[in-house]
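Sample intake sheet
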Amino acid sequence: MLGTFAGRMLTDAGPSPILVVRGELYDMAHVTPTAAALAERGDFSGAGGKHIGPFDIDSVPLLSPVDLQCVKACGVTFAVSAIERVIEERARGDWSAASAIRERLESRIGGSIRSVVPGSPEAAALKTALIEDGLWSQYLEVAIGPDAEVFTKAPVLASVGADADIGVRSDSHWNNPEPEIALLVDSAGAAIGAMLGNDVNLRDFEGRSALLLGKAKDNNASCALGPLVRIFDESFTIDDVRQGDVRLTITGADGYVLEGESNMREISRDPLDLVRQTLSEHQYPDGFALFLGTLFAPVQDRDEPGRGFTHKPGDVVAIESRRLGRLVNRVVTSKDAAPWTFGIGSLMQNLAGRGLLKGAE
């Protein structure tokens, strides 16, 4: 296993930060009791950690690789995503109206939105033309305007990891996964690694009103990260993120299969610019994870013609990238997912009970 990876695993005593260095697994709990502290320490050699042995991803109970870090997300960073958000808005969350709107918007603005740099004079001129044509949208503002969309995806400790159930609101009838690369950023604002993530999206909720973004994005078990964070080093850099491919396979219990791929070369904003905008006039003393957005917006019909795609309970979502591994989750409703009960207080009590807070860095 090439590269250096950081994450978290569940032990009999509780959650522990881990490192995988050249294929060897180290429990780092007695060096740095949290994943956030491990990221801040900046030493990913495994020194001082408990050597477990060769890493076998199938035998290690992995958790989300972040704990005290905030989970932030950027939206509408790809042209296809921008067009689909405008469709949701104009359809008012009604899937039955999406097909006709999609055809009109793609023919009118598809080429233009793909060719401009956000915040540039050309983007401003396109905005003026679209306003005059009655096609302007708040989503196009964040797609080609100077300011990126940045929102909070999940509370601290609420994200789930590899092989966990992932939740979709039980009252949503038009939704989809969003396979993405997410950066891990330390408190100084340095991107120190990358991982895979699923920024589950409820198209009907957000389409009805952008003010429902919180309900569309932040629900029980609605954020998956993992399986591990690949740390940036000489073998893996931010340029590998910029050039990365993310593949998606959805396999339904009904035999339905959908495949897709996102290419990070098509992103409209540089990943480090998204980090900079996230940090603008805000601090993150424990660091943060940042979803970079997705090119994937499934429009293939799953059931009746014109309905497009939506999840069904039992769907297995597999997100993979050659450099970052494979993140697999099974879809359930947020009501049926395991309730989130292990918060910051529970973590501190656990670490104190294990004697891990004494002299913690």
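Comment: Residues 21 and 45 are 7 Å apart (CA to CA). The longest helix spans residues 98-115.
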